[in-house]
Amino acid sequence: MTSLGQQVFTQNTAEGNAQKTKNQDQPDLLGHVAVPDETPAKGPIIIQVALPVPLFDVFSYLVPDALLAQWPFAPGCRVCVPFGKRELVGIYLGQATNDGIQPDKLKTIHTVLDDESLLPESMLKLLHWAASYYHYPIGEVISCALPTLLRQGRPYNLLAQYWRLTATAEREALKRAPKQLETFDLLKLHDEPGAPESALLLMGASKKQLQLLQEKGLAECFLQKTEHQTHPVKLAELPLIPNDEQQLAIDTIKQHLASFKGILLDGLTGSGKTEVYLQAMQPVLEAGQQVLVLVPEIGLTPQTLDRFRSRFQCEIVAMHSNLTDVARLQAWQAAQTGRAQIVIGTRSAVFTPMPKLGLIIIDEEHDVSFKQQDTFRYHARDVALCRGHRESCPVILGSATPCLESLHLVEEGKLLSLKLTQRAGNAALAKIQLIDLKNQPREHGLARDLIDAIKQRLKKQEQVLIFLNRRGYAPVLLCPQCAWQADCPRCDAHLTVHRQPSEHLHCHHCNYQSRLPAACPSCQSTTLTPTGMGTARLEEGLKELFPDTDILRVDRDSTSRVGSWERIYERAHQEKGAILLGTQMLAKGHHFPHVTLVAILDVDGGFLNVDFRAPERTAQLIMQVAGRAGRGQKAGLVLIQTFKPENPLLQILIQQGYAAFAKTCMAERKAMLLPPYRYCALIRAETPQAEKSLQFLQHVLTLLYAQPEAKQLEKPPLEIWGPVPAPMERRAGVFRAHALIFCKDRRLLHHLLGHWWLQVCKLPERRGVRCSIDIDAQEMS
DNA sequence: AGCACGCCGACT
DNA sequence: GTCGGCGTGCTC
Asked: What is the pTM of this model?
């Protein structure tokens, strides 16, 4: 959001710049389209089309006479066009002015796929802004706002699943299946022409019965166009009575409806943020408007959805990566037509068109999953703020551990801050204590004091959660004779020892796998020793230490089988002693009411890291994990094992809390002129040859200062760190390097980067080098 | 990104 | 004599 502050709150956007320069010699940076309001002179109609190709231009085409009956097209509709030897589906953006390309090079579009716009003007503008802000090709940005099926050119029909009986269906076949019989009769009632699944479910049919009938060949499912109708919102459940803080937050948000306002809802875990969301949403929904709710990737659980469903009786759609193409299209259409009043989704849902958008909520706004890491590197939180600004609706950012960027915007008066400090039911906040690992005997990686604390809890039939962010058995395989270590042949990393499903070595960075060597390849010793602690090994150790206790391990290896996570979840909800043990997966979203002790085993790495954001991330994680402890009536305790108990940041965090920590961290950032006090961009390069990545970056960075715009500046306005090899220089066989660019002035940074990056992408030296630009980079690896 | 064209090695 | 390797160049 770094840049967003300025971006949102001043009108000086890159878009604005592009508009100013569009008629000059410089090619329009991101192919912004001439506004199609001037009626063109007679002659052929030339239109501009955005295509899903990694090129920064939009493309001009002619409209054939045969399609003039459909003219004028709706900006945002799809067109089929010839492109090279291919045919592509693109988005019609508007009429082109005649300048630029020679008319003889123009091709003619093949077809127009839609009568109406799929992406209203406000969405197209937002997508243009995102393309320009993140320096990413406009066609690819636009295509990420469309579901796959529409991208492929499949017809836009409002599809819904309908059910009907098959022609040969006989009632007699179901004599001994009363439930299916009920569903059969229901279908019989609505047999012509079939009934939508959603209606059948409301009438008491179940999905399972329908499927069983289908398997028996008695019923069939088909897709059919539906008419969209909006159902009035009804409250399905009375709102809880808010406490004073919640009421103040709700009232304040209500005051700001119908205009843009960024609101940071800074509330402890368990202080009732969701209730504030729900009550703030109510007037928006009652006014017939839509609400967009963004949640972190792991946060979109059935429980989350249930919470909304049980409060509001209106159409709610979930948008996440696990949807099938058809389901995604249906959800998208429900949002795009305005029928779905609530859209809950992960990062990419921020680009869902919603014609009656009235409120945006971003839950756990600090979560890293809101920043896309590969290809189009946008931050959904920042896009959401921009969207709220453009569409004049409030944006609520909720978090117990707000990111420093958001807190900085509060400081500057650009975000309104609302605090929730009381926990529901007066639940006591967990105490956090450090365990000094120096001079402390350990068993299976656990300090004596920690083992004693665990025993105490188990005796009382309470549960313990142990957090260890390292999966596998052991992170290193070491030869004690000659200090050889098993390393990945393709990465600068150790191989992790795994014992499940069978003993093997595994690289967590490139997926390389191999057998364990029988003897040390260096000195032939046969005493190779797994060293260090992973979750699988800790599980073994815990079974030895607590033989009569259920140990529930939660990590990617233990939960990959279907249903295993559900089983663990169920067991954790029984009021009986148990130890939950796992990686980050455990930290987020899930509520374990019987956990009263949380242990964090390896926190030191987070504070001693080249990434300047690492302490912030670690603190957020600690607070989040701490929030898992003692949410019920029983007070919780958090124990953190560390070799560095004197670390000042850690001390401030546990003694004075996250707010004080953030303040200190912020002061350090300010002193170092790091984000959010300067804006940043990270340039990455990857090649299979060592040195070449660095050389390329070096070359490219000299061009940055060689630009005429940069030369005119007296003092270099940019500070460049690097180029340096990336923290893990070699990964999956490629050598990675990067450089960080800082600038105080966001507009200047984007102005310089924009022209320069276009130039870099066209460089002949670029062949064989994968390079990318990451605006407001969040992770330095 | 695709998908051409283009110019050199091991096959019938 | 061809099939195919991926270098490089273009796409309105």
From this structure: 0.86
